[in-house]
C-alpha cells in the first residue's frame, strides 16, 4: 500500500527461514543410514509484518493488486 500524497509505503514485511543441510553419512552402515539422500530440513520460519491503519487525513489508500 502506498500513501497517495507522500508516496511512502504503509505496509512492510520481513521473512526469514532457517534451514539445516544434512549430508549423507556414507561411512555409517547402521539401519541403512548410508542410503538416505542429502536433505535440507526447514527448522524455523519468522515473519514480521507492519501495516499502517489508514492515512490519518482522510486520503484514500491505493493498493497494488
TrEMBL record:
Keywords: Cell membrane, Glycoprotein, Membrane, Transmembrane, Transmembrane helix. It holds the Pfam family CD36. InterPro entries: CD36_fam. The keyword Cell membrane applies. It is found in: Cell membrane. Its main location: membrane. GO terms for cellular component: plasma membrane. It comes from the Eukaryota. Belongs to the CD36 family. This is Uncharacterized protein.
Amino acid at each position: 500500500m502506498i500513501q497517495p500524497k507522500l508516496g511512502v509505503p504503509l505496509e512492510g514485511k520481513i521473512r526469514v527461514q532457517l534451514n539445516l543441510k544434512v549430508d549423507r553419512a556414507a561411512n555409517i552402515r547402521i539401519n541403512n543410514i548410508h542410503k538416505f539422500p542429502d536433505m535440507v530440513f526447514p527448522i524455523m520460519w519468522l515473519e514480521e509484518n507492519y501495516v499502517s491503519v489508514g492515512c490519518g487525513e482522510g486520503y484514500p489508500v491505493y493498493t497494488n493488486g
